[in-house]
Each structure stands twice: as C-alpha cells, then as structure tokens.
Design goal:
The chain is α/β, with parallel strands linked by helices. The protein has eleven helices and 16 strands. The longest helix is centred in the C-terminal third of the chain and has 17 residues. The N and C termini lie far apart (about 55 Å). The N terminus is likely disordered. The structure holds ligand H79.
Length: about 450
Amino acid sequence: MTRAPSLAALLLVATLLPCRAVGQAPDTVPPERLAARQWYRDARFGMFVHWGVYSLLGQGEWVMQNREIPVGAYEWLATTFDPVKFDARDWVSLAKAAGVRYITITSRHHDGFSMFATRATRYNIVDWTPFKRDPLRELAAECRRQGIRLFLYYSQLDWHHPDYWPRGSTGRNSGRPESGDWSRYLDFMDVQLAELLTNYGPIGGVWFDGMWDKPDADWRLPHTYALIHRLQPAALIVPNHHQAPLPGEDVQTFEQDLPGANTAGFNTDQIGQLPLETSLTMNRSWGFNITDRDYKTPQQLVRYLVEAAGRDANLLLNVGPRPDGTIPPEADERLREVGRWLATYGGSIYGTRGGPIPPRDWGVTTTRGDTVFVHVLAWPDRVLSLPSLGTRVIAARMFATGERVAVTQSEAGVTLTLPTGGKDEPDRVVVLTLASRRR
Ligand code: H79
C-alpha cells in the first residue's frame, strides 16, 4: 500500500530530470556503471531463463502467436499456472555449478504475462494464479545469497495489452480491440520497470527484447533509460533490438550468433565498443519445448563459450524450465558439464579479453595481462603456427597439465608443437607467457 505513491514520485522525478543518459559521450557514463560494465566483461558466462505461462504448453515461448491463441483463452491458461516445484535455491545452485556469474530471467515475455508482483496490471503471477508467489523475489534473494547477479529480461512487445497499438509485425491475431493508447502503454512499461528496479534490490541490468516488432515507433527510450539509470545507476541496459547500440545502452547483445556472424538473419554486423554478449539456446527453443530433442552436446556448448570469449563476448546460455518449476534434465546435465570444464579451465575464460589473435579456423585466443591463452578447438596436426604476437613468448605450457610446449619464434610468428594427448578434450588450451613490453 505504501509503495504506489513512492513509485509515482519516482516516475515524476524521472520525468522532470533532464535526459542526461542520452547522447552521453562514453566518458560521461558514471563510474558505477563503468565498473558494472567491467564486471560484466569479466563475467563471460550467464544463464538465460525463459519461463512463463507458455511453459505449460511445451511448445516454446511463441506459442500464443504461433498457434493464434486468443487473449481470452490464454488468460484462462494463465489461471492454471502453478509451478509448485519451483525452488530458487535449486536454480541458483545449478547456476553456480554451471559456473555462470549472472542469471537473466524473463520478468515478462511477449505474451504480456508478468512473472512478478506488479501493481500495473492484475495479469501477473501473484494476482492471477493459484501459485500466488513472486518467483523474482525468491530468485533475487537466493542470487544475493549465492553471489550471482540477476538481470531482468523485459519484453517491450506485448501480445496481450490492449494499448499495444498500433500493432507491429506480430500479435495481430490475439483478438484485441483495434484501438489503443500507445503513450499509456509506454507509461505502463515505465511503472513496471520502476517496480523491477525498486522492489528486488540491486539488479544487474535490464535485457530488453521485442522493439524490432515496431522498429519505427517512438519507444521513448531516452526517458525509460534515464528512469532506469536514475533508480539504479549501476544497472546495465542490454537491448536486443538487433541494431547498432543507441545512447544510454551498455551492452551489445547478439541472438543465436557470435558477434559479427549473422546466421540468424536479423543480427547486425556493426560491432561497437560496448561489452558484447551472445545469447544461445541449448536446443532450438527458448521456452520449454517438450518435443525439441535437438540439444547441442556439452562439448559444443563449451566450444561456443570459448568462441564467444575469443571474440570478447559473454555467452548467455538459455534454459527453459518446465511448468512445474523444474529444469529439464537435459539442460541440467549440460550446464553441469560446462561447469565441470570451467572448474579446470575457468582461468582461461573468466576475466579475460578476446585476442590478440583474431578468431581462426583452428580456434581463438583470450588474454589477461601478459598471458595469452591459445584455445585449440579444431586442429589435427601437432604443429600450429600463429602470427606474431608483437613480443617474445618466454614460456608455453598446457593449461591443465602444465606440460611444456615447444616454441620456435621469428619475426613472422610463433610455432607451437602440441603434445600428442588431449585430442578428446573440447578445447586444448596453451598458456603463453609474453615478455612484458607488450603493453
Ligand atoms: O526471447 C527469445 C525469443 O522469444 C525472442 N528473443 C529471444 C531471446 C525472439 N523473438 N523473435 N525472435 C527472437 C526472432 C526474431 C525474428 C525477427 Fe521478425 C525477424 C524479428 C524481426 C525479423 C518476425 C518477423 C518477427 C518480426 C518480423
């Protein structure tokens, strides 16, 4: 009861503020946000969670759109959502075992159903379902306990809200009235975002999605971004709008593609200076899909993480929990496998930056200080030649075993002779120590 006026007040304050976040040169980003970006770059690995009413149908998170489910029928479906086995401690413990440093969870997806306590609409998990609990609150508390940062996915696209009008390229067949008030919809989102940034303690950031549904609309981004940064100056804005970064944004994220690749068909090839992230499904679905058996192997997932790190990007690896709140065993096993790999090789991933050698067919490099990690992902021969690193290599050994690696070097480059073993590993990591005049 006491929160509504303070939220209104926060919104008012945000409205009156000059939009300082907009058009800022990078050097005017406040220090707490710069520090958060640095933390984020160091993290390298996150767990994405797609979970909502759609999970009940086991056909992915686009089921409302794909099966043309009308708003009324979907509203009924939502009344049955009762994930009695949801246990925040299980989820966060799994995240820890996987070696992720942050979790990004759907607070509200395109179906418009809020998976958190909100006063902006009754169409939320606390007021609309028999479950009555706020999973975000439980997750936020558990993340704090276990030292995981929580990011909130928030869909700007909405297939349910009557004021999402005029319609974009989706959500046209859900039986809504052909009218609505766009500015009221934007106000609704701002109220919800203010709640998310007020009621759950420190939030890592907001992961926006769906703007691509109406690319030409006025989304009032400067206003909303300023609101977020006003409420939590260290919260990062991670927009999945498939465009080059806009003012006020903190991360450039790529969906189902490594930065620079565009197999998905909608990712931009313009890579800016911001921290990078790649989001990836383990099978072909984000939301729980009961028939999608097309899982990547743990080795493929490890290699994707390494490929991302070699391009200076984080990997945000998705799981789609089941409607009862449990994680599918296929996802559980894979996350733990990646975590086992990181328990050994994490030193070549966490806190590193991509390079200095650009990605190659044989693999990638990561670096920290005067150390370069050569990640040999696909190379059949013992001899591997690298371009010049600009300084001398003073030591080379295998990361896991410490075994010495023979090196010959000239101005043209560095040649490594790899040991015979380890070919069944997803990644053979060679640690090069460089003479320190490099930086
Ligand atoms: O939340 C997950 C997906 O539900 C959501 N983003 C991830 C993280 C997502 N929605 N759509 N997509 C991903 C694929 C995007 C398809 C698009 Fe298009 C192609 C957007 C623009 C062109 C389809 C055609 C939608 C609008 C036009």
